[in-house]
Write a structure and sequence with these properties.
Elements: H1 2-25, E1 27-32, H2 33-36, H3 41-47, E2 54-75, H4 83-87, E3 97-124, E4 132-134, E5 140-143, E6 178-190, E7 195-207, H5 210-233, H6 245-264, E8 266-278, E9 285-294, E10 298-300, E11 308-316, H7 319-333, E12 340-354, E13 357-375, E14 386-389, E15 396-400
Antiparallel strand pairs: 1-3, 2-3, 2-8, 4-5, 5-14, 6-7, 9-10, 9-11, 11-12, 12-13, 14-15
């Protein structure tokens, strides 16, 4: 019995030492791909990388800007040139024209894999494989636990505006397009002693000129106004009893407005949104030209006559400088330069201006305006712990123990 007990104890001690030895052989390395690609062949051999490493990236922010423009399309009336002559209306638009103006801006932020922040995870050992989760773009979402993280970012639903309704002018007068005109010709009759000229009258239909049509419509407008005055003053009280005075006045006003449009023209308003994308560089401040704008041509990708540049200026809020100092000091305390790399995102004030005139300013979260920091690899030895990261910004989201 004593021998058996000693054998069991010896076996347990051997198993314990084997576990300790293999546990010490368990190692994890996280290496930046850009640095790795600069290694020489000899340095590659010294690394002794595992055959099947994992990869993850940190995100950078793409900013998508929508510029909402409104177009005011003015269609000149067919009798615009006669508005002053017959109605006394001055400064009427006599040519078709479109006037544009910017009415609003939309900002969206989307995460993209940062090509400068790709990392290789090399794990070796027999007893534990640390799970690493990334989203479908390869951006880190968790370490220590498998999670499913879809690609995030605002997915806007863009509804194209309906085509502008253009009025078709069919009613150009209050009577027919032709008028009767009497032409007078003379017929010469010869008698025995003299010649006589006898007038011959012939009635024909002649097409009315635009001036005549305009005069006719103007007279009708004045007649409608006289009718309204006579009804309101009580001079004309002969109207259908089932209709109120208010209804009749409104109908007359509607008819009057319809004929006035033949002189003043029609206005149609439509809206459109132009989209632009930019990936800010990792600098404190930058300015980019999104497009060019003019009141006569709207949004254009190149400069034109009378156009001004639409500028986007991104100015870091300054948090990066303080974060970088702190991150550098903490990194100097770590004996091992390896770690779980993540981002502390920064922010920027985004200003859109037309030429030198500022139009709007808003604050955006820009991942690459922050700093890269790391968690010590020894934290992975805690089997119960796992770490979640924000795929939008690369920030450390939570630590679970």
């Amino acid at each position: 019995m004593g021998k058996l007990k000693r054998s069991k104890l010896f076996f347990r001690v051997i198993i314990f030492f084997i576990i300790v030895i293999f546990s010490n052989c368990q190692s994890t390395r996280i290496i930046n791909i850009n640095k790795l690609n600069k290694y020489s062949s000899e340095e590659w051999k010294k690394l002794k990388l595992h055959a099947h490493p994992q990869y993850y990236s940190l995100p950078k922010t793409l900013v998508k800007i929508g510029i909402i423009t409104e177009k005011k399309q003015i269609t000149a009336g067919p009798y615009a040139t006669y508005a002053d002559k017959y109605l006394g209306i001055k400064n009427v638009q006599i040519n078709d024209t479109g006037i544009f103006r910017m009415t609003g801006f939309l900002f969206y932020q989307y995460p993209l894999p940062d090509p400068e922040q790709y990392y290789l995870i090399d794990q070796s050992g027999m007893f534990r494989y640390i799970p690493v989760s990334v989203n479908e773009n390869g951006v880190l979402s968790s370490i220590g636990k498998n999670t499913e993280t879809p690609v995030s970012g605002k997915n806007e639903k863009i509804i194209l505006p309906p085509p502008a309704k253009h009025r078709i002018i069919r009613d150009l007068g209050v009577s027919g397009n032709f008028a009767e005109k009497t032409d007078t010709t003379y017929r010469t009759i010869k008698t025995d002693s003299s010649f006589y000229r006898i007038p011959v009258y012939k009635t024909v239909l002649a097409k009315k000129t635009p001036d005549e049509k305009a005069e006719e419509v103007a007279k009708h407008i004045f007649e409608i106004r006289e009718d309204k005055i006579s009804i309101l003053s009580g001079e004309n009280d002969k109207y259908p009893g089932e209709f109120s005075i208010e209804f009749i006045i409104n109908e007359l006003s509607r008819i009057e407005e319809r004929y006035l449009l033949l002189f003043t023209g029609f206005t149609n308003i439509s809206s459109d949104t132009s989209w632009f994308e930019i990936v800010p560089a990792n600098i404190k401040s930058e300015q980019d030209t999104l497009c060019f704008f003019s009141e006569t041509a709207g949004i254009k990708t190149s400069a034109g006559k009378g156009s001004k540049p639409v500028l986007l200026k991104l100015q870091s809020t300054g948090a990066k400088d303080n974060l970088q100092i702190t991150a550098n000091r903490i990194d100097s305390l770590n004996k091992s330069k390896d770690g779980i790399y993540y981002r502390i995102p920064g922010s920027a004030d985004a200003q859109i201006s037309l030429g030198n005139k500022a139009l709007t300013t808003t604050r955006l979260n820009i991942a690459q305006f922050g700093v890269i920091s790391s968690l010590p690899l020894k934290l992975l030895k805690n089997k119960a712990a796992y770490y979640e990261f924000c795929p939008e910004t690369g920030a450390l989201k939570s630590i679970h123990r």
